[in-house]
Structures are given as structure tokens and as C-alpha cells.
Amino acid sequence: MSSVVATDGPASAEVMPPTQAGPTRASEFLLTGGATLLLLPLCWLLPRALGFDRAELTVGFLTFYGAHLINDPHFAVTYLLFYRDVKARLWDEQVPAAQRLRYLLAGFVAPLALLLWGGAALSTHSARSLGALTQLMFLLVGWHYVKQGFGVVTVLSARRGQNYGPAERRILLAHCWAGWAYAWASPFDPGRSVEEKGVIYRTWMHPHWLEPVTRIAFFLSVAPLVFMLVRKWRREAKLVLAPLAGLLCSVWLWTVYSGLDPLFMYVIPALHSLQYLYFVWLLKRNQARAHEGPPSFGRPTRVVVGAWAAGAIGLGLVLFHLLPSALDGALVDARAARSSDLGPTPYFAALFAFVNLHHYFMDFVIWRRENAETQYLRHQ
């Protein structure tokens, strides 16, 4: 496992030089961020062809129902990856102690703390507390996006035979973290009343200096990034561009300038989820192929991957639709909800924030070199 980088995100692995078999570069490019370059101009053109209201209805309809097959499973499959054999990982002495501690914290301590937070907010009817949980989700979602973009460039470049050294990775990460900070700080927020999933709360006030300082830091991080890439291209006589596109789309278009186009904002979660699901598919497909023949004689690869897909879709349906609908229907007084800051679907709001935040914690643990399964990211 010495070839896997000890950072988080689905692309935390440096891998062996590629073989002939494997996904095409075009499909890999599109699934890991390149589709952004097609969908962004399409979102710009649609209102001019259909009118804004009709275009928004069309895009909103497609993304709402598409979430059942893309966004929701991307969250749900993390639970399947994390809790499968988690007991063995916690007690296996061959797993580094630091990784076992991460499993404990992400798998049990973090969800318990989040459940207590959400449960207390619901039991005390505190929209302020539930709003704070939601704001924590919004704070960390940018971190989650940019670290995944970092993962894309490190893993996919390595799969194409180009590795990034420690100093180069630090430059990439500095640009990612600066983008995350600027995205959260912008625009300036003096503290305002907002509504999210029916919950009305007041946002955290930003200090006046936060936006300009993070903007300067973000743009300053561009210079060492460009210098490093040019130097790398000159030194190695090549630069694998598709993974870089995935990184830059994640940072610039999905995080920092996500509001560039009002219709494109609907599409960003799906693009991020496709990026994540590609690496899950890569991992489980290669793992199934490795065990399909002797001596294991496991189930066919298509059956294994199909089972994972079905499980992710089913669990996503439970987490985001069946369970919150049942709780809100059974425990919320519809009449009282009309005059409450918690709104008619507080359990949906709480579960949505919980699953998002827990997803970030689990993702931080899964995609590390200490997880033996990441070795399968080496295979083509």
C-alpha cells in the first residue's frame, strides 16, 4: 500500500502504470468533471431557446428525479462501503492504529454526536439549532468538493502514468483549500434570515474582512499552481490534462463560482455525484474482477457491481424519501407547522443534514492508503 497517498477523497491513490484494458479516456473525462464543459453552455443556451421559466422547469424536473439514480445513491453507497466489515477493521491489528481510530470516530462517535444534535433540535423545536446543523453542512460541503477534486487529479493522473510528488500535492491542496475558503466567505453575509428544507433560521455573520482576504489568498494560490504545472510539463514532456480538468471544474465551477449560471446550479450536485460514483465503480469492478476467477471463484463482475448499484439506490430511497416522509407524517402536526420556524418537514431537514455530514466523515476514512481495498484503484 505504499503507493497510495495518505490523504482523503476518492482519488487518494497513486497507482501503477496503465495497462491496455479499462475505461476509455473520453468516458473517464466526462464522468469525472469534463461534462461540466458541455452542460454549462447548454444551461446558458436553454433559456434563450425555451424561455427562462420553461428551461428552469425542465432542468429542475430532470435533476429532481435524476437524484434518485445519481445524488442519493452517491450518499448511500458510502454507508455500504464503510460499514461492510467495519467490525473487522476496528479490531484487526494489521490495520494501523490511526486508521482504526478514524473508523471509530467516523463510524460511531460522529454519527452519535450528529444524532444528539439533531434530536435535541427537534425535541426542543429549535429552528436555530437545526439551522446551525444545516450551516455546518454548507460549510463542509465546499471542503468535500475540493478534496474530491484533488483526489481526481492524483489518482487519474497516476493511472495514466504521471505522479505528483509531495511538494506538488501541497501546491494542489493549497489551491483547493483557498478555493473552499473563498467560496464559503463569498458573498459577504451580515447575518440574514433564510429558509432551507422548510426550516427558517438566521445565518452566521461573516466579518467584513473575510471575503477580501480569502479572495486574495485564492488568486495568489493560482501562481504557484501554474508555475508547478508548467515546470512539470517541461520536465516530464507531458501533462495529463483530463484529471486537471476534473480538479479545476471541482474548485472553480462547482465551488467558487457555482452561481455563475442559475440553471447550472441544479446540475452541480449530479456532476459531483457522478465523479464520486465513478471511483466507487472503479474500485468495486476491479475488486470483483480480481476475485472472479481462481482461487476465489467469486460472483461475476456484472452481478457484483449491479448488486452494489441496487443497494445504493434502495438505501438512498430510504434515507432521503421513505424514512423522513414517515417521520414527518407521523410526528409533525401539519397545522402547527404552518406557524413554526421548523416548517412541515423538520425530520427531512435533520436527516438531510445528518447524512451529508456523516458522508463527509466516512469519506475521509474510506479513501486512504490504510484501507486495503484502495489497492484495487491501481488496476485498469
Molecular structure report:
It is a single chain. With 380 residues, the chain is an all-alpha fold. It has one domain (25-371). 70% of the residues lie in helices and 2% in strands. Helix 2 runs antiparallel to helix 12 (264-292) and helix 8 packs parallel to helix 11 (241-256).
Concise description?
The chain is mainly alpha-helical and 380 residues long. It is 70% helix and 2% strand.
Fold blueprint:
Blueprint: H1 25-34, H2 36-50, H3 52-66, H4 71-83, H5 86-91, H6 97-123, H7 127-159, H8 166-185, E1 193-196, E2 199-202, H9 210-220, H10 222-236, H11 241-256, H12 264-292, H13 301-331, H14 334-337, H15 346-366
- The overall pLDDT, averaged over residues, is 91
H and E order: HHHHHHHHEEHHHHHHH
Helix share, percent:
over 70%
Give the terminus-to-terminus CA distance. 17 Å
Strand line-up across the major sheet: 1-2
The total count of strands amounts to: 2
> Which structural class do you get from the secondary structure elements?
mainly alpha
Radius of gyration: 21 Å
Shape: globular
Strand percentage lies at: under 5%
Low-confidence stretches: 1-9, 11-20
Number of domains: 1
> Biggest sheet: strands, sense, closure?
2 strands, antiparallel
With helices defined by DSSP (H or I, 4 residues minimum), what is the helix count? 15
